[in-house]
Specification:
By secondary structure, the protein is an alpha+beta fold. Strand 1 (51-57) and strand 2 (63-66) form a beta hairpin. The longest helix has 29 residues, at 123-151. It is built from three helices and three strands, in the order H-H-E-E-E-H. It has a three-stranded antiparallel beta sheet with strand order 2-1-3, with no helix packed on it. It is flat.
Length: 156
């Protein structure tokens, strides 16, 4: 008898949870529905129109970018930016020696890999983090100078 009550309980729960997928609302569509494959695949492919951005110099000879240039802007240049393209290039990873199993970052002198995620921050790890941050900053500055050269702006 106990099994009959459990079976009836699961049947009632299944019907209660599944019913909103089959009952139509005012629009004629089910109250709850799963998305179709087309909506999932095309969701991230929204095409946006090109964006107009302006480039100008101020009184101190500095370049500025913005949607609306000020009234007294010098050397005003309209730029069209295609927001549907990705201009960030991937970073090439350094090649590893085939005989070496350790990564190139662990070959640095003074590098100590963390023992666990719960390890406290030590002086050596703090110095490694600072060195890594400097390396990232240098990469970003090199990338910005490349972008400035592409746009036609010279480094001053």
């Amino acid at each position: 008898m106990k099994w009959l009550y459990r079976l009836m309980t699961f049947a009632i729960l299944g019907i209660a949870l599944g019913l909103p997928f089959f009952i139509d609302n005012k629009d004629g569509k089910p109250m709850l529905s799963l998305p179709s494959g087309d909506t999932i695949l095309n969701e991230g492919k929204k095409v946006l129109p090109p964006t107009a951005v302006y480039k100008w110099r101020d009184a101190s000879n500095q370049w500025h970018y913005g949607d609306n240039p000020p009234p007294g802007a010098r050397d005003l240049q309209p730029l069209q930016i295609d927001t549907n393209t990705n201009i960030v290039q991937s970073v090439k990873l350094p090649e590893e020696n085939p005989g070496s199993t350790a990564s190139t970052s662990s070959n640095k002198p003074g590098y100590t890999p963390p023992q666990s995620n719960k390890e406290l921050l030590t002086v050596e790890r703090a110095l490694n983090l600072m060195n890594d941050a400097r390396a990232v900053r240098d990469q970003m500055e090199a990338r910005n100078s490349q972008l400035n050269q592409i746009v036609g702006e010279s480094n001053r």
